[in-house]
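Comment thread on ticket #2218

A.B. wrote:
> Attaching the input chain for the structure job we discussed in standup.
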Amino acid sequence: MKATMKIIAAIALFAFSAPAFAGGVTVANDGESKLKLEGKFFLNTTANKTTAFVAGNPAKSGTIKQTTGLAVDRAYFGAKYYFNDAWMMRITTDVHLDTTLSSKNNNIFLKYAYVEGKLAGDALVLRLGQSHTPWIDYEQGLWKHRYVSKVFVDTKGFDASSDLGIGFKGKLADGLIKYWFTETAGAGYSHPGMHKDVVTGKYASGVKAFDLDARIGFYPIEGLTLDLQFRDGYKGTKYYDNANKQTTPGTKHTLYQIMATYGTHDWRVGANYINEKAKRNADVLNAITFQEDKTTGYDLWAWANFGDGFGAFGRYENDKVKRTGNATDEKTNRYVLGLEYSPIKNVSFSLVTDYSKTKEKGHIAGDWEKTTKTGLYSQVKF
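C.D. wrote:
> Ran it. Output below, let me know if you need it in another format.
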């Protein structure tokens, strides 16, 4: 037992005394090969209050939810192995509370498991496996405050941050243009390569259609980013229904997004415009009627570092949803404001207020629901 503890202690000492390497620590070198470990968690303390107004029903109006709690919202641990300058592999786990599962407990997901290789230098790079999708992680890198708030398309569920598939990315014209095109199974990393049964609601393996998810960016001057996203597919809802011996029509999702940002190492401002359409064709055997949802929205965000570890950030989101057969739109406005303090590199704390209000909640004229969240958010990583 003592020998085992000594070995564990030696490994830990070696890992955490190793030199920093692009956000992680290099724990082994063998010629060109490198092994890097990295970790990150979000620890948040929040007070949440949700109030609602239901037209014609005062009994259901007022405060409908109020909570105070401490939570590890996310905990990531990963390893990257660089075979050489051209090829690498990565595996990353993600621990978080998934309320869509029956257990309602912290669950461990496989976030990334992929191999990447340069086929033609930086101009053509292959990515195969369970990997980032082209947009969410990229925008998070510009927004820099994922531990407080997801980006718009992630919050709304229009895209998944990771999925199973194949992709090609690269840089052209000396970095003036960057692209990333992927074909994925569509259901996201929590149910990779699976579909959701339209009757039981349970997941099973196999899909009938892959989703295209792509981003192309332009960088004409230093500090300026211009990016376009296009996503088209069924998110794992199109599959062969064994019980009815037919292919389900599924729900076709089409997403367009444009984003412009400008800034430096110490500040950045950004603006996005999003258009998403979800079209579900009728399925007579499963008693599903035609449905079409259209969402248009935009967001504005900014952050700045003031020096001595202090900074501030904020974002505003606005979206409108219209569904077939509903004369009343659903409209949401959201505001996030925060003050940040980083006492040392890779450790950040933020005091945050997050307010949102949805009008015509449930698509009934006059109904609304608003949520206020305040708290202390933190991020720690190596």
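A.B. wrote:
> Thanks. Noting for the ticket: DSSP finds three helices and 22 strands in the chain.
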